Amino acid sequence: MSSLVDYLDKGASLGRDAPCLVEGATTLTYGDVQDLSHRVAGALATSGVQPGGKVGILSSNNATAFASVFGIARLGAVWCPINPRNEADENRALLELFDCELLLFHSSYADMVAKIAEQLPALQTVVCLDQEDDFESWLNEGMPALELDPPHDLAMLVGTGGTTGLPKGVMLTARNLETMTALTLMGYPFQGRPAYLALAPLTHAAGVLCFPVLALGGKIVVMRQPDLGEFLRLVEAERITHTFLPPTLIYMLLGHENLATADLSSLQCFWYGAAPMSTARLQEAITAIGPVMAQLFGQSEAPMMVSMLPPKEHFDADGNIATHRLASAGRPAPLVQVGIMDPETGVLLPDGERGEIVVKSSLVMAGYYKNPEATAEASRFGWHHTGDVGYLDADGYLFIVDRLKDMIITGGFNVYSAEVEQALMQHPSVRDCAVVGLPDEKWGERVEAVVELKPGETAEAPDLIAFVKERIGSVKAPKRVHLTPELPRSRVGKVLKGEVRAELLH
């Protein structure tokens, strides 16, 4: 596929009348979305956007907003998803970095747009997607756009979020996304026309997972708000076959009162990823949701499919849950080379040794937009550096130990926060947790944990510390445990360790 619009057109070739995007009572067929994409492409061209131009979309999950992506691609322009849950200053910085000249936005974010647009001289046009006198008028003024082959391969610019400083723009090409799509279709079950439920933000993993669904002529059911009760209802009502949630939302789903009575028999593949998942909760999910859980591991710079653990690999040959394998991120995908490297020397390490996870593949980004220094740093020694610590076992399964930046050095020992978190999550009262290192005069750093308990459950900090000591020893056990009603989370459900650490230091 040389362009994102090719996925839409492939799906439409299987039937223009088939449902493509469903949101509430509204259904857009493949023909509807194709027609809209032509109109959007024409309006963009009339507004002065050239092939290769950058177009931002600022919206929560919305069928019209996602359909507009294909108009951007049909012109040969570049889709720049802007996360609506970012602060205004961060989105202003991203729009400036990306050189966006036109912004499509939902009226829910009109105040944010009014605040930042005047600070962006390159931004020539802003259009509100859900106000007919704005969006429809803009479409009607557009001239028919010539269909052009993209002048280059760039399909998307994705912000890294700026959690470690200024945000970077990840350049994803049509080839990157074609590789991701091929791996998805190659590695996970797809029977018949899929029906994909998008609760997680379409600006992130939930969005790019739509492309393999479209290639098969499947429908995408869009949820604007993250309501788990509605999620369960839609799985049953729309006969959903595929969906994706980050672990935190799966933990909440496991505690939902409607889970036991929901009909989830249509599910073929329930992806989880974006953060490590507790093996204890994963076993619960396999029992409560079904033998459909499927892990994926990737990052913005190498989207989704660095390694894969499809549903069948959650089980041994005898049909029992493969508990020894659940802590892994699966095996490297077929079109991806994964190595474990000493990041200082560039030496690749043997099986079983821990080092930085590095990747070679057509899955890997073209680089960081207008940032050759960061691109060079991320591609040292000819491999893409993920920033994750891990190891490969003798059977080729990849185990992710921690983020490099989250490793805690206490009393001269390396403690991986993810290992401590896995131990805490084994406790039956713990819903979620975050483990961080804090400065300590005696140990250099000390291990501390913040724990969110399940609703109605109780546990005391000393008991939780003792629980971890029994499992992984006193060196790795937290020196202190703090209980909180709710951990801080990002727009995609990840626990924000930076905020946890800052609060503990406060």
From TrEMBL:
CDD domains: FACL_FadD13-like. InterPro entries: AMP-bd_C, AMP-bd_C_sf, AMP-binding_CS, AMP-dep_synth/lig_dom, ANL_N_sf, ATP-dep_AMP-bd_enzyme. The keyword Nucleotide-binding does not apply. Residues 419-494 form the AMP-binding enzyme C-terminal domain. The keyword Ligase applies. Keywords: Ligase. Belongs to the ATP-dependent AMP-binding enzyme family. This is Long-chain fatty acid--CoA ligase.
